[in-house]
Amino acid sequence: MARKAKLKHSDGYTQLSFESVIQSARILSRDQVAARGKQEDNNQEYSPVAQTTEYMRRAVHFEEAWETTIQKARDALLRKDPRELYFEFLVDLTKQVEQNSPRSSNLAHLLEQVAIRGLGIKKEYLSIYKPQKGGNRWRINFKTEAIQKHIDEHIVGEYFLNPIKIIDQLWHGREPLIGASDVSQHRSAVPVPARFFKRSVPFVLNNAAGSLFRLQAGKHKYDNVFNPRPDEALLRWMLIDPSYQDELEPEDYQRCLASAMDVGQYKFDLEYLLKADKTPDIIFRDGSLFPQDAYLDNYIVENKRGDFTREAIREMLDCFSYAKQVGVLYCGVTKNVQLKVYSAVTDWFIARYIDRNWEIGNYTLNDGQAMSTLLATPAFVGSNLQETVSTCLIRRSFTTRANLNTRADLDNLDAYFQNYESQHDVDIKPFRRLCDMAHVYMFFVGHSKSPQQQLPRYEFFLSDVLDETTKAAEKVLWGIQHCGLMIDEDHSFMADRPIVYLLPSVTQQAHILSRDVGKYIDTSTGQWIMARYKGMLPK
Fold first, then answer.
1. Burial (Cβ within 10 Å: 0-12, 13-18, ≥19) of residue 241
2. Looking at residue 353, what DSSP letter applies?
3. Cα–Cα–Cα angle for 87, 154, 406, nearest 5°?
């Protein structure tokens, strides 16, 4: 799109065209926005040099063992019952923490990461008590039978690593449709036509877009889907004006920006994919299915951050409800993985059964980093991805994402919510409904032959309308194989050894469209802002 020329006014000052400003706007992905918020939260205690060097050391160690220790672990984990593995891990870490050694603090943190943040075990079943001030005695409340039952209900798969293949009649002979969506954030400014000074007003605009994939006459066909003209009602959630920074604290402002991205993508998913004339059979949504801000305390806060948190929750509920109604396999494709629910157990298994010198508890790679190495082998990738190996599936509930398993009795949430309702004039029914119905199953699929290609985590919403869990996982593999894989380098780092992600091609198409089309969608928004501004000027 050609840039418009600068506009020269009769009194001598120059007004830049909005389009020319947009060309230099900064565009951020969901992951970059989330990272900004976390960095602001941890700025005072974060040591980037220490963290970077420790990550490099651990990542290199893990990768160097790819053909030796990791290969032995692959073979053994193909025969290891995952429920037995996780239970052994929790029991052993509990014993090690209670030995009150210098490693107890790190191991307790790892136990919390896996058991509470990952598996969502209730506080009544597992609680970690730190030493009192001046002491060194750790204590853990561990309900053996309840924890075993929880693990049995939340882990699916015969083994920790399971062969998975495409069933020929998965779609009963018809040609399915695959959809995807992504959201980008554009940070720019509107030029202000002032006589003596060059001024501009900053704003943030979110843009969601999607892609539909089908095979047509044996060839790949992508249909781009986006809203070229957002109206004022939609801009209410897409456009973050300067007043937000005046009203909100810096942390709240960053969280508001993140929730705004969630709102935009949920709205797009519902209107342009789930409610489309031809609904996709699978949606590969870029990012997690859960919102970035899922805590009840933030849901009830009475400011603009609270407005966006509530809207994101309402839109997520609408997407899940409609996906359940029409039987769509709604799947998130997550690159920026923070959990360590797979990686920590893998480290422990190697240290216990493969290599006694293997390090555990000091620095654990996140799931994405570790599973990209564990699953990356030519032996796991069959011809044309007809079959491969995946991790076991772990059920993760909205209550876990919202941290309610540590704060409330999950068997009596009504009393917990009634307490909030009595103190705040906020409708929390959407939040309560998500606690009842929002459960996803997450897993990794081995569709890479090299550990240099990072794997995303797949997580799908499963309702009683959809097939059983294992068949849903097979459909995810089918969707990946059907549309093929593309490389995403937008999130690469360490330039001398670039790290790339392997994503379903339809997801990457949605990412590219959201990023590129968003640059020009801002033009109509800028015209709308400038028209309003000119209407305020004296005639």
1. middle
2. I
3. 80
Q: Which residue has the tokens 């949606």?
A: 283
Q: Is the dihedral of CA 325, 331, 332, 338 positive or negative?
A: positive
Q: How far is CA 161 from CA 70, 157, 392, 443, 446, in A?
A: 13, 8, 6, 10, 10
8 Å CB contact between 27 and 518: yes
End-to-end CA distance of the chain: 33
Q: How far apart are CA 73 and CA 389, in angstroms?
A: 14
β-bridge partners, 211: 180, 224
C-alpha dist (Å) from residue 163 to 175, 472, 497, 523: 25, 15, 30, 49
Q: Which residues of 82-106 are buried (b: 16+ CB within 10 A; e: fewer)?
A: bbebbbbbbeebbebbbeeeeebeb
Q: How far apart are CA 291 and CA 311, in angstroms?
A: 10
CA 507 to chain centre: 14
Nearby residues of 330 by Cβ (< 8 Å), 6 or more positions away? 269, 274, 283, 285, 289, 319, 320, 323, 460, 461
φ, ψ for residue 414, nearest 5 deg: -60, -45
Where does 288-392 have alpha helices with state H?
Answer: 296-299, 304-326, 343-349, 367-374
Residue 181 is encoded by which pair of tokens? 């969506």
Q: Which two three-digit tokens encode residue 170?
A: 């998965």
Tokens at 65, concatenated: 């063992």
- The whole-angstrom separation of Cα 306 and Cα 41 is 18
What SS3 state is found at 336?
coil
Tokens of 183: 């959201």
Query: What pTM does this model have?
Result: 0.86
* CB contact set of 327 (below 8 Å; sequence gap of 6+): 465, 466
Q: How far apart are CA 46 and CA 44, in angstroms?
A: 6
Residue 484 gets the label, from left (phi > 0), alpha (psi -120 to 50) or beta, of left
Walking along the chain (539 residues) 10 residues at a time, the average pLDDT comes out as: 40 40 53 56 61 73 82 96 98 96 92 97 95 89 97 96 82 83 85 72 86 88 86 82 90 93 96 94 96 94 94 97 94 94 97 91 90 84 78 97 94 90 88 95 92 93 74 91 85 54 94 81 61 60
CA proximity to 34, closest of 313, 251, 327: 251
Structure tokens at 160: 């920790």
Do 445 and 455 form a contact (C-beta atoms < 8 A)?
Answer: yes
Q: What are phi and psi of 104, to 5 degrees?
A: -60, -40
Question: What are the DSSP E strand ranges found in 121-173?
Answer: 126-129, 139-142, 155-165
